[in-house]
Give the backbone structure.
Amino acid sequence: MIALIRYMFTVLLLSQRHLAPLLLFVGLLAVLTSSDSGPLAATYGSVAGAMLVCSVWSTMALIGLEDPTHRSVVVVTAGSRLRVLLGSVCTALLWCLPLTAAGLVLPLLFGSHTFTAADAVLGVEAQLTCALTGIAIGVLCSRLLFRRQGHALVASLVLLLAALLGRGVSPVNILLGDLQNASDSADLLGSTGVLLVVAAGVLAGAVAVTQAVGLRRN
């Protein structure tokens, strides 16, 4: 699995398809957190929202790098379709880790905040919750399920809006609501940790659905 993840990560970097979502992430952080001096919990809510969009885009780009023929070769080499799908998910999550670090630091440079250990933990939890949810959406809207890019784009936008705006529909909506109304990061560490676990479950479900549909098609 390590070799597979290394291969996929290398292909993603060489393709340069990571640049567009990366620039979008940094741009959103600059716009949403510039000159901000409010509570860091609310600021990290904005950062987490940017992570959601970026993780969806990055995952769809990663899975869409290979045409069906090339992917079949990778599947044969790796041993199974599930192994390749899990490798894609792990690679997407690995790509989100340096973005998470940037999401912690850049708001401190763009704005004026008092930074604590609780803020750091909350920022990581919030961004990973959105990253896992975004990867789940990216997997469901990838080339593995949608042959036409236009259909995949529409589906991803619908799921993004549902995740952001649907009350109680996704851990992201609950998370962002909690962060916007919080004044102390320490008060949210427990509930945000629970939402992180829920987001991991959402991703596991998305992988299971994608794998089941892929097996039926083949």
